[in-house]
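User: I'm preparing a small set of examples for a lab meeting where we compare how different chains pack in three dimensions. I only have the primary sequence for this one, and I'd like the structure in token form so I can line it up with the others. Please keep the answer compact; I'll paste it straight into my notes.
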Amino acid sequence: MKAVDELTLRLREELLCANHGGQIADISTRHTAISHQLVANAWFSAFVYAKALSNDNALLYSQRADDYYQKAFDVHPPGQLYHLTQMYINAVLRGDDTRLDLAKHIAIMAYDKTQDVQSSVMEIVTALLAVNQSVTHFLPQLTSEEKHKSDLVPFGSTGAVRAILSNDEPALINSVDELLTIHAKRASNLRSSIGIGSSNAVICRMAILLCEAASHRGINIKDKLSKRRQKMSLRMQYPSEFPEVDKNIKMPLEVDFLTGQAFLK
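Assistant: Understood. Below is the structure token output for the 265-residue chain.
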């Protein structure tokens, strides 16, 4: 079994989840929003895997993810900030022109105390940076997530934010390269939340968002990073479907963690 087989299987499974029909029970607006969110997440993962496989439908899947994040946004106002952040990373990853408008919208809602859906603060911090707004209020939370949610917010993230704030390009490059190195290791680790069954294995959200924020402040580092393209070991998401294959198999995969492009052989 090779990495391309695993990616193809994951894409198929995400499409099955995304296309799963059924009536949403009218329990609450929150329940309805979560139902839309789950479908949106499946479409987003399909987008990431399709991108890795150079599948022509990748952009379509990204747009469908937006459609469902928008549905969730519309139906449950207390969860709007979370769904905005998901639309933001989706737009950034596909290079959509709406991403700066989304960052501005996030900045407007960032301090809204009525929001009841918890999400990582990384999208909020990087969106604020992109539109030149203060992030001081959120730095303690980002530091905490760096310690306790390091699969998504790798060590080096807070240092990278401070480098952007001080306009220190060399420090920013070092910090982002550091967190990309850590991401590659965690993406290959079965004990990591992104190491098995997560599309976040083939993209580094934090690095993508940091590069986006820095670019809006005149610091363009994407082409100066030495660790954006690395080799990782993809793990099986559904080992029970392949009993003849060692469940701990490591499938070598070279990937650009800033774009999700996989270099398949």
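A couple of notes for your slides: The chain has one domain: 3-263. The chain has ten helices and three strands.

User: Perfect, thanks.
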